[in-house]
Amino acid sequence: MRLRVRFQKVGKVRxxxxxxxxxxxxxxxxxxxxxxxxxxxxxxxxxxxFGLALPTGHESLAEYxxxxxxxxxxxxxxxLPDAFSDALPAGVDATAVAVIDDRAPSLxxxxxxxxxxLSVPASVVSVPHLVARxxxxxxxxxxxxxxxxxxxxxxxxxxxxxxxxxxxxxDVELEALLATRPxxxxxxxxxxxxxxxxxxxxxxxxxxxxxxxxxxxxxLVAPHAIGARAQ
Length: 231
Known about the structure:
Helix content: 10-25%
CATH architecture of the largest domain: 2-Layer Sandwich
CATH class of the largest domain: Alpha Beta
Oligomer: single chain
Shape: elongated
Number of strands: 11
Number of helices: 5
Number of domains: 2
Strand content: 35-45%
Order of helices and strands: EHEEHEHEHEEEEHEE
Largest sheet: 9 strands, mixed
């Protein structure tokens, strides 16, 4: 049996790395005595695979992992979100769990874009003007490092959508739909493309998307939102 878990990562726990979050989940699975399936060989590992890594310091309402259970596990899937959340640190909560096809493609292969919310401190720079200019631009070049080498990349194709969705006089809130392939565009790279001096006070991934037959859908929908637990 293969399960897909959707979870959120909010509050102070956002400063933990992707690897640390993976360790949190492995401990949680042990605490709830989940009958995980394991790989073979000399160094067996539980069959767990995570989706796209979340940059350290960012929050998310839409993180995912897939896991395999032993045959005839006899698990009450409906009770797993609460069980997992109780076994995880504050700020990491499971919001949905569902059985998926054993042959389903990996999350890394399927997710093609993500929706992000970015809070940008208001300044003398007109954020709506920057957004309009970026959307009208045929190309947006930024310097990016990969494997120790720097290059100038055109990131305009990676911006699938961008708009101002809030302005309270202190922060301007942007919503951006960014591609994850062929090379994903990170939220902070988007800000550099808009203006090199632009910074964000908060970044949150709110959706991940799979494209099927021209339609965009989430890997697993959360039935209800969960407020952040006390930090």
